[in-house]
Structure formats: structure tokens, C-alpha cells
Amino acid sequence: MIRLTPSQVALIQQQAKTAWPQECCGLLIGTLEAGCVWVDEVRPCRNLLAAESDDRFEIDPQDLFAAQRQART
């Protein structure tokens, strides 16, 4: 199970509305405890394929690497 706060859900919904009709993408950063993921951060990411297709996405590697570096700290 993934646990999100209402404000995190609202951020995801806003990102989806803003990106429409293209796909939006992002990362959920959190911790796993007793089989449940507690989301600490919803991190929107750039979709490198937004200009090419409405139904595809590719997370910008720079966004991914930055999130991984931050999550390690």
C-alpha cells in the first residue's frame, strides 16, 4: 500500500491537469515500513517525450539523478 497525504494527491492531480493531454511524470520518494510505503515527497519531473506523443513519457535523467542524490541524504 502507498500512503499519500491529501496535499500530495492534490499536487499529482494538478500536475496531470497541467500536462493534459500529454502524460505527466514524477517520482514518489518515501520509506517502506511494514509493507507500506509512506510518501515523503512527490517530485514532478520533466517529460522528455511530451512534444512527441500524448501517450508516452520519459523522465528526464537529470531529474531522476537529482532525486536519487537527495533521497540518499
Fold and architecture overview:
Helix content is 36%, strand content 29%. By secondary structure, it is α+β, with helices and mostly antiparallel strands. The two termini are 24 Å apart. The model has no long low-confidence stretch (mean pLDDT 92).
Class of secondary structure makeup: alpha+beta
Cα(first) to Cα(last) distance is 24 Å
How many helical stretches?
2
Q: Please write the string of helix (H) and strand (E) elements.
A: EHEEH
Give me the side-by-side strand order of the main sheet: 1-3-2
Strand proportion: 25-35%
The average pLDDT value, as a whole number, equals 92
Annotation, overall tally of beta strands: 3
Rg (CA only): 13 Å
The description of the largest β-sheet is: 3 strands, mixed
Are there runs of 5+ residues with pLDDT below 50, and where? none
Residues in helix, %: 25-40%
Name the shape in a single word: globular
What features would you highlight for this structure?
73 residues; 29% strand; alpha+beta; single chain
What's a concise summary of this model?
The chain has 73 residues and is α+β, with helices and mostly antiparallel strands. It is 36% helix and 29% strand.
Question: Helices, strands, pairings?
Answer:
Blueprint: E1 2-3, H1 6-19, E2 25-33, E3 36-45, H2 61-72
Parallel strand pairs: 1-3
Antiparallel strand pairs: 2-3
